[in-house]
Amino acid sequence: MIICDDNSKKEYFEDIVNVCSYAKELLEKEKYDEAIKVVMSKIRIVEKYKTAGKKECFCFDELFEYEMYIHHKNDDDIIWVKEPVKDLYDLYVHLIESINQNEDEINECVNDMISALKAALRWNPCSAELRFELFKVLLLLKKDIVAASVVLKEAYSYIYRLKPMMQFYRCLGWKFRIEENWDAAMLCTQMSMTFADDYGLALSEELMEEIYMECGKMIEWPEDNEERVNVWKQIMNKYDIPEFEPDSNVLKLAKKCWINSQNDRNKEDEIYYSEIYNDLNRMNCI
Nearest CA to 132 among 64, 72, 83, 203? Predict the structure, then answer.
């Protein structure tokens, strides 16, 4: 792996943060066309250099995402670009949503939004967060439940922190709500609150309220813990909902990376991987 850092980065990856900041300023001033032109101009540049010679460029958010990539591909002959390339695509999708307010306008642009998020995933193929964004567009705007479900299932295989696990179950709650499977919608939303921060908790509570308003009743779980867990497991089996636990392959890889860092006496990596491994183990709740 080659890290394209501050000392070696190529000219075409520079100024991404400044470009995004400038585009946001234009958006605040309602200069929508200019904002999109600025972002698209930079996207065209980075896309041109996605492959540098025989090496492909990627943009991971964390070291463990890089480890997941080489674990799946068995290939570390890549260039890791440290600049936040995927932010360009995120911002482009946000700009489209901001500019196109009514449903007809959004419908005309939804395929562009999907293409942008898929392009972002080419830069970071191990991102659960990007898949959650793509899921929302497919489910809520494209109205394609099947495609959205496929993307969400993929996301589960790349979860290694508690926050994305909360997002995963909240997304499932959205899906089951649209399908009017109220018991599954409420259960998944309930599960999304387990380790949620204040913001995530507020989102889940808002979703729970919407589910309640639409179905007209609140499902009450048994007070006895064993009975409650049995009811939950029946619902999870019925709708093929993953149990609240990490992907086994992700857990094994995190443990391997932690042990390797201990053997290498790399204290910084040891602390980093121990945090991930502990987060993954905390997910075993049911």
Answer: 203
Is the pLDDT score of 246 beyond 50?
yes
Taking each helix axis as running N to C, give the angle between helix 32-48 and helix 16-28, from 0 to 180 degrees, rounded to the nearest 10: 160
Residue 204 resides in a domain: no
The residues near 138 (Cβ < 8 Å, ≥ 6 apart) are: 114, 144, 147, 148, 151
Burial label for 242, CB within 10 Å (0-12, 13-18, 19+), is: middle
Of 22, 6, 7, 89, nearest in space to 50 by CA? 89
Q: Distance between CA atoms of 207 and 70, rounded to whole angstroms? A: 37
For CA atoms 192, 194, 199, 204, give the dihedral sign: positive
pLDDT, average across residues 5-28: 79
Task: Tell me whether residue 201 is in a domain.
Answer: no
For the record, the structure tokens of 177 come out as 């709500």
| Number of neighbouring beta carbons within 10 Å of residue 86 | 24
How many domains is the chain built from?
Answer: 1
195 is a domain residue: no
Whole domain around residue 34: which residue ranges?
1-158
251: CB partners within 8 A, 6+ apart: 277, 280, 281
Residue 217 within any structural domain of the chain: no
7-11, 49-53, 127-131, 271-275: least confident range: 7-11
HSE-up (13 A, CA, CB side) for residue 36: 14
What interhelical angle do 32-48 and 86-99 show, nearest 10? 150
